[in-house]
Request: fold
Amino acid sequence: MNAPQSWLDAVHFDAAGLVTVIAQERGSGDVLMVAWANREALALTAERRQAVYWSRSRQRLWHKGEESGHVQVVHDIRLDCDGDVVLLTVEQLGHEPGIACHTGRHACFFRQLQGGQWTVVEPVLKDPQSIYR
Reply:
C-alpha cells in the first residue's frame, strides 16, 4: 500500500520549481501582493503560519518581514483549480494599516489605469528608507 500523498505533491510548480502565491488580506479582502514560493517555502509557511516566499532577486528563501518587521500571519492556504496558484489569506502586521509593499504602501497594486496611463492611487504610509536597512 502506498503512503499518503503529501499536500505539496498537488502543487504544480513551474520549470524553475516555483509557484505563484497571492497574499490577500483577511479583513479587507485586499490583494496585497503576488510572490513566488518553492516547495520548501510553502512547507515552512504551513508549518510556521507566517508567509515564507522564494525571492527571485535574492535567490533564497525570504520570510516576509525579516527586515521590515511587516510579517504576514497566515490564516488560510488555498490552491486553485489547476494547482498552479496558491492563495494565502493573511493578517499583515508591522504598521497600522499593514504595509505589504516594499514601497511603503499597504499593497503592491497602487497604480490604476486611468485615461491610458498608470496613476498612483494609494499613498506611501511609511518611507521605505526608514523600513529597510
